Amino acid sequence: MAFLSDPIIGFLFIFVASFLLAGEFLVNRRGIFGVLGVVMYVLFLYYHLSDDSPYWLIGVLIIGVLFTLIDGFLIANGSVGFIGLIFIMLSLAIPSPSFSYGLGVCVSFWIGLFASLLLLKLYPVRTFWKKLALFDRTTNEAGYSTMKPSLLDLVGKDGQSLSILRPVGTIEIEGERYSAITNGEWVEPGVAVVVTAVDGTKIVVKPLADEKKEN
Fold first, then answer.
1. Domains of the chain: which residue ranges?
2. What confidence tens digit (pLDDT) does each residue in 16-51 have?
3. Secondary structure of residue 132 in the 3-state scheme
4. Could you tell me which CATH number the domain at 149-214 has?
5. pTM for the complete prediction?
6. 75 contacts: CB under 8 Å, gap ≥ 6
7. Cα 5 from chain centroid?
8. Of 33, 7, 6, nearest to 18 (Cα)?
9. What residues form DSSP beta bridges with 203?
10. What is each CA distance from 103 to 41, 54, 70, 86, 172, in whole angstroms?
């Protein structure tokens, strides 16, 4: 374990440990990442503890890990988990042999946590997170649509402008009033119009006379 005396090696060691521990909460790896991350933390702390080091730092590390576990699997609001992460970071940085080494430990700790988000592209997301966040894309290909079926039925139907469309206004189709828009045209009230398209909740119309000319 003498290689941990090198600040660069220590930086990489903590980076990997944080990467694995955070990844355990994000993706389903059956505890492998979590165990490896905690073991690396323990080895790092054990190596740097000396006769002058406060051994209560071991307790700080244990409390930090417990806080993150409690938040990750029970509370799930991030408050207790964040405190746990601070405890873990301090337990690793305080016994470092120098200020620069300890600072590097703190930096690598947080970089490893954020880098673990890359695991979301490689492994299945934990079912727990799927309940809290929507990971599916709401595309038409996935079966989602922003269009209301009732509005889609209006395409091709004739109506009449009730107000001036400039280019937005009110129209009437089969006794129902709708907000509609033209493609930049101004239409006076009482003009026959036809629905040419529906985009989401936007009804696009044009004068019926213009539609007949084009056909």
1. 2-132, 149-214
2. 988 888 877 777 667 787 788 888 888 888 887 765
3. helix
4. 2.40.50.140
5. 0.52
6. 81
7. 37
8. 33
9. 180, 198
10. 16, 19, 27, 14, 69
